[in-house]
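Reply to dn_fold:

You asked what the input looked like. This is it:
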Amino acid sequence: MAENLNYGVQINASDNQANNSIVEKYCYSNSSGNCETYGGLYQWNEAINYSNYSITQGICPSGWHVPSDQEWI
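and this is what came back:
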């Protein structure tokens, strides 16, 4: 990816992201401009699209996936 992931609907930082078939994101300081510059912020379950698999595409674009703990290390 050429830039940080900025996908989904912005919600207020005081709200919890929910398993509701809508990808929800936070923006630093609740500023949509920060999402444009730095990308969205996601809770883990939202990022993996509420999957039970250790390696999953999650909310990533086609051809990408959320790295497993081993890949991250």
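The chain is about 20% helix and 5% strand.
Hope that clears it up.
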